[in-house]
Every structure is written in C-alpha cells, then in structure tokens.
Design brief:
eight-stranded antiparallel β-sheet, 453 residues, alpha+beta
C-alpha cells in the first residue's frame, strides 16, 4: 500500500477517533513533501487534553508553564510545528503555526478555502493580514504575510469566532459614535495576537516610544484625535497582555457623557472610586476588569496625556453590593400603636425577635445586610403612635448599593430632590424614605417616616 493511501487511511481513522477538525494538505518544495495540519478545534480544553490529542497524532510536545505555550512538533512531517496558547486557567484559547515560505502559505490558503473557509474582507484593512472564517466550524484563521519585530512570518493563527470585548480573536473594534473604540484588552493574550490585530487596522509599530525590553508596545493609529494605542505585557515573561490604553488628544477629548455611554455600552459600570485628580473608574464585575478614565488635568500641572486604560483587577471588595437583602418595614405611621406595630413586624418573614431599648425598640431581622430595624414612637399629638423606622446597614458597600433605590422605586417611591439626603417619597401612603450614607441618624441607614415635603 503506497504512502498516499496510508495518509488517507490515517486521515479517516483520526476523523473517527477524535472530535477535533483537522485538514491535511501537501506541497512539494525541493523534492521534500511537507504536510500542514489544522490545529485542534477543542477550544477550552486543558493542557493535558490537548497534549494527549496531538501526541496521539504523532507530535512531540513541550509545555512552557510560564509562557502558557504548548509546542507541538510533528514527527511525521517536515517543518510542521504548532504552538497552542493557553490562558491563566490552562484553558486552550488559540493556536499558531509558521510557514517556511510564501509558496507554502499560498498552498495552505488554497486548501482551507476548499474546506469551506471564506475570505472575510472587512475584518482587515491590511493586505498583510488576511482573515478567513468558517461559520459552520466556528473557526477564524488569520493569515499573516508581514514581518515585524518579534514575529516570524509568514504564519497563521487559528481560533474560535468571537467578537465579544474580552475575546482573544476579536477582529472588530466595537467603535462608538464618539469616535472611541476598543483595542484588544483581554488579559493574558499573547503579543502575537496584539500584532495581528494592529496590523489588520493598518496601525504602525512605534519603535521610538516602545520599550520592548520592558514589554511596552506603542502603535500609531494615524488618527489625530486618538493617536496611540499602548499595550503593556506582563512583568515577568514579557509574553502576554496585562494592560491596554487608548491615548486621546488633550484638546479634543470626548465628553463625560460620551465616555460613559461608550463604556456602559460595552459592559462597564461607573464606580464611586476616583483618583487624586477625580478621574473615574468603571468596572466590569463579571470579568473583573477596570477602565480608568484619565481625562482630568493633574492638579499639580505637568504633562497631560489623557487616556482610557483597561486592566484586569478584582475590586469587588471595594465596591457597593449589586444586590442587598432589604427587609421592607411597616409604614403605617401615625395610625398604629407601638404594640400593634410590633405585632405586624412579628408577622414579617424576616422577624427574629425584638427588645425595648428605652428610646427605641429594636427589631432583629434575618437579613445579613440590615440586621436591625429601629422603630420609634411619635411625640406631641403622636405620643403612643408608631411614627418612624430606621433600617441599619452593617457596611458602606451595603448602604451605597444601587439596589436600594431600585427596591424603593419598586415599592412606589419616587426620587425627589428636596433634601441633602437622597429622598424618596411615596405619595400613595404619604411616607418618605431617606438614605443616610454617612450615619447622620446614628448609623448607616435607610429611614422611613411620614412625608415632610
């Protein structure tokens, strides 16, 4: 049986035994046959899973845990080496392989087109970086013909189609009406993907500003309003992405409303955190990503270089809780006696017990966020009547939660600018609720009482 038939049989066998997709193609250079195989399509698999798969196919592997790269070199084909890239959880994200020459690259492109990959022309402005996709296989292949410092060309990258903001293989800039757009910001992606992305946008590498030995890469955009994109790689290996910034012309900055709309439309929320120059921080809680908006001139003067900088940082413990357990109090003020009010509290599902603390009665609740409700008797004509309730919070992250206004509004209260305290009024039962962020009422709290406005 000749070698060509053997190859075809191996292809059939591997197609049956593995769930990944691969293609074998052949080109002949100087009388030597070279085979190109598409990498594993099992994105999200562990290092051990990919290692076992490719070793079964006749590859020798070495894994660099620091750089998160699995090098797979074929024992059966000349010059066939595939690098598999993994994230910090050792999950497979994409692969890359190099070509010996342009002839091999062209043969590869011809082969993948036969396999159903189509040129995605709008994904690249540069003739040096062509993008091919297969929506059936959900795979994107970016073929590079450029030679840039730090990259050996020609080559291709192979990954999942994913145009979300934290994707490693994103081709879209997610541009906004303000002119702002999103460079690659995904923590952990390799320099190779950064270079491919910037090449597709026809951004040029700025050698003068860059500090390669420190892992800092500047790219000129050709856009006077947003002149530079900067990528900072990790401190230890200078291999994968840590931070990204888009620089902005000091005299042509987007408005705060435009920046807010741009970031919120991309999944970031404004936080109460600011720096010494009152620059704001936005946060994506799901992905633990910050966007620092450096748009304010430094108080002490000096060089002003406005930018929006993206970086991975878990600041959950510094932010208000998104949801709180809010025990809605009894609000029949001025009509119930204190004893009747206590009876109504006893009927609430959150009631645990109560004590008489001389100047107040404390209702103990099952809520970990608001464990106590202080209730008060009125004075004057309201002596003996239940007249106010204060829900006490245990943490600033609770009392600053955006969920509290949401709960009040859902219970018929409307936000009114009638006091220095955030005030919500329910006109149906003529009560008001005021949020005390600073402990004016004796504790971080939400105070309910008859409407005074």
């Amino acid at each position: 049986m000749n070698s060509r038939i053997n190859l075809k049989l191996r292809v059939i066998i591997f197609s049956v035994l593995t769930i990944m997709f691969f293609t074998a193609c052949e080109t002949t250079n100087n009388n030597a046959t070279t085979q190109y195989w598409l990498p594993s399509q099992r994105f999200g698999s562990t290092v051990d899973e990919i290692k076992l798969e490719v070793e079964t196919q006749g590859f020798q592997t070495t894994f660099d845990s620091e750089k998160r790269q699995l090098n797979a070199k074929s024992t059966k084909a000349t010059n066939l080496e595939i690098i598999y890239y993994f994230d910090d959880k050792n999950k497979y994200r994409y692969a890359m392989s190099k070509f010996a020459n342009t002839e091999d690259l062209n043969s590869f492109v011809s082969n993948i087109q036969k396999e159903g990959f189509a040129l995605h022309a709008s994904a690249s402005k540069s003739p040096e970086e062509r993008v091919y996709i297969s929506t059936v296989k959900n795979v994107i292949i970016a073929v590079s013909t450029s030679i840039e410092k730090g990259r050996i060309a020609p080559s291709y990258s192979f990954g999942p189609i994913d145009e979300t903001i934290f994707s490693w293989t994103r081709t879209q800039t997610l541009s906004h009406t303000s002119g702002l757009w999103l460079p690659l910001i995904a923590n952990g992606l390799p320099l190779d993907m950064v270079q491919r992305f910037e090449t597709r946008l026809q951004h040029t590498f700025n050698r003068e500003r860059s500090k390669i030995d420190k892992g800092i890469y500047y790219f000129n955009t050709g856009n006077a309003r947003f002149p530079y994109i900067t990528y900072w790689l990790d401190d230890n290996t200078k291999t994968y992405l840590d931070e990204t910034a888009i620089f902005i012309d000091p005299n042509n900055r987007p408005t705060p409303a435009e920046v807010d709309n741009f970031l919120t439309s991309n999944g970031f929320k404004l936080t109460p955190l600011v720096d010494e120059n009152n620059n704001q921080v936005y946060y994506n809680r799901e992905y633990k990503y910050c966007a620092w908006v450096g748009m304010n001139k430094p108080a002490g003067g000096g060089t002003f270089t406005p930018k929006i900088q993206f970086y991975h940082n878990n600041i959950d413990d510094r932010l208000p809780f998104e949801m709180v357990n809010f025990p809605m109090p009894v609000v029949e003020f001025g009509t119930l006696s204190m004893e009747q009010a206590i009876d109504q509290y006893k009927a609430k599902p959150y009631y645990q017990s109560h004590t008489d603390d001389v100047w107040r009665i404390i209702i103990y609740t099952t809520s970990k966020d608001f464990p106590e409700i202080w209730i008060f008797e009125g004075d004057g004509a309201n002596v003996g009547k239940y007249y106010a309730a204060i829900l006490t919070a245990t943490d600033t992250r609770i009392i600053n939660s955006p969920n509290i206004p949401e709960i009040l509004i859902a219970n018929g209260y409307e936000k009114k600018n009638v006091s220095i305290l955030p005030t919500y009024i329910n006109y149906q039962n003529n009560t008001m609720a005021q949020i005390d962020h600073n402990g004016t009422f004796g504790a971080l709290s939400v105070a309910f009482s008859p409407n005074e406005f």
